[in-house]
Design brief:
With about 350 residues, the chain is an alpha+beta fold. Helix content is about 45%, strand content about 15%. The strands form three sheets. It has a four-stranded antiparallel sheet with strand order 3-2-5-6, with no helix packed on it. The longest helix has about 45 residues.
C-alpha cells in the first residue's frame, strides 16, 4: 500500500471522549454536510463534515461521509486517507461491518491514485529539509511514491549553508505518476568554505635568446601625431541667435499691446481729461517705447550672431588658411528714460 495509506492518524483512536455539547454540535454539522452532499454542493459539504469530525473524531460515519465527499470532489488521495481513518475507528469500536466497507473503499481507490516521487538527483547535505505543500517530509523516505490529489504541488528543499531549491509541479487527478529529481544544492560562499580568489592574468616574459644570436627586435615606438594638425574647431552654436529672436518677438508684441493701451488712454483723456488718465497714458507710452527698443536691439543682435556663426561655419568647413584678424562690428542695446535704441561699435 502507498505511503499515503500509511498516514493513518492512529492517535484519534485513543483520543479522549468528546463532550456532550461537542457531540451535539458535531451531529448538527454532520447533518448539514450530508444534506449539502446529497445536493451535490461539495465545496460547502466537505468543510462542514471536516468540522464535524474535528469535534467528534470517534465517528465512523463522519469519517466515511467526509471521505465520500472528497472522493466525489475528485480529491482521491485525501479520500483514501479518510477511508483508512474510518476503517481504524471502526476497528477500535468493534464494528466489523463498517471496517470491511471502509477497507473495500481503500482497495477500490488505490489503483486510481496519482503519485508524486521526490528523488535525489545529487547528494544532499546533512540537515536537509524537504517540504511538500507546506508539510515537512522525512528526507530518508525520498524516492518513495506519495499519493497526492490532482493539481499543483510545491516542493521546497533547504539546508544550512546552502541555497534553497524549490519547484512547482502539476499532477493529474487520476493514475498520474510524477517524479521530481532534486539537484545537488549550491553551497553559499563564506558558509564554511572560502571562495577561491579570482585568477589574474600574468604577462608573459620574452624568452632569452642563446648566446651569439641577436635578440628580437625592439618594437618600433608608436608614431607621434602631427603636432601641426589641430583638432577641428567646435561648430559655433546658433542657439543664442534663436533666443534673441524670441526675445525680440516677445518685446515687440508687448510693446504693441502697451502702445494700443496708451492710445486708448489718450482717447479717454480727450473725452474726459483727468490727471490719472494722463499719467497712465504717459507710463504706457514709455513702457511701449522701452519694449520696442528692446525688441529692436534683440533682433539686431540676433542678426549679428547669425552672421558671426555663419562665417565660423564657412571657415571650419573649407578654409585651410587661418582667418585674418580685422575689424568686427558690434551692436549694443541702449535704454533710457525716454526710450531705447542701438549703439554701433567697431572692434579692431
Amino acid at each position: 500500500m502507498l505511503v499515503a495509506a500509511a498516514g493513518l492518524l492512529t492517535a484519534l483512536a485513543v483520543a479522549p471522549p468528546a463532550r456532550a455539547d461537542d457531540q451535539a454540535t458535531a451531529r448538527q454539522l454532520f447533518d448539514q454536510g450530508k444534506a449539502l452532499l446529497e445536493q451535490g454542493k461539495f465545496d460547502a459539504a466537505c468543510p462542514a463534515l471536516e468540522a464535524s469530525v474535528r469535534l467528534y473524531p470517534g465517528s465512523v460515519g463522519g469519517w466515511a461521509k467526509l471521505a465520500e465527499c472528497h472522493e466525489r470532489q475528485g480529491k482521491l488521495a485525501t479520500a483514501s486517507r479518510e477511508y483508512v481513518q474510518a476503517q481504524g475507528v471502526a476497528r477500535e469500536a468493534g464494528d466489523a461491518e463498517r471496517e470491511r466497507m471502509a477497507g473495500d473503499k481503500v482497495a477500490a481507490l488505490e489503483p486510481r491514485l496519482s503519485t508524486l516521487s521526490i528523488d535525489r538527483a545529487g547528494s544532499l547535505p546533512a540537515g536537509v529539509r524537504v517540504v511538500l505543500d507546506g508539510d515537512e517530509r522525512d528526507a530518508a523516505a525520498l524516492g518513495q511514491p506519495v499519493a497526492v490529489d490532482g493539481g499543483e504541488h510545491r516542493i521546497e528543499v533547504s539546508a544550512p549553508g546552502y541555497r534553497s531549491w524549490a519547484t512547482t509541479v502539476t499532477v493529474q487527478p487520476e493514475r498520474d505518476v510524477v517524479t521530481v529529481p532534486v539537484p545537488a544544492l549550491e553551497k553559499i560562499a563564506g558558509e564554511g568554505a572560502a571562495t577561491p580568489p579570482a585568477e589574474r592574468p600574468v604577462a608573459a616574459k620574452p624568452a632569452t635568446p642563446p648566446a651569439g644570436q641577436p635578440g628580437p627586435a625592439a618594437p618600433a615606438p608608436p608614431a607621434k601625431p602631427d603636432e601641426g594638425a589641430g583638432e577641428p574647431a567646435a561648430e559655433p552654436s546658433r542657439l543664442p541667435a534663436y533666443l534673441l529672436f524670441g526675445l525680440a518677438g516677445a518685446s515687440v508684441a508687448v510693446g504693441t499691446g502697451l502702445g494700443i493701451h496708451a492710445l486708448d488712454l489718450k482717447s479717454d483723456y480727450e473725452e474726459q481729461p483727468a490727471a490719472e488718465t494722463a499719467d497712465a497714458g504717459e507710463q504706457a507710452t514709455l513702457l511701449a517705447d522701452v519694449f520696442f527698443g528692446v525688441g529692436l536691439a534683440s533682433g539686431a543682435a540676433a542678426v549679428v550672431v547669425l552672421l558671426v556663426t555663419g562665417s565660423g561655419d564657412a571657415n571650419a568647413a573649407g578654409s585651410a588658411e587661418p582667418a585674418q584678424a580685422g575689424a568686427r562690428p558690434a551692436l549694443v542695446p541702449v535704454l533710457g528714460p525716454a526710450g531705447g535704441g542701438l549703439a554701433g561699435t567697431w572692434r579692431f
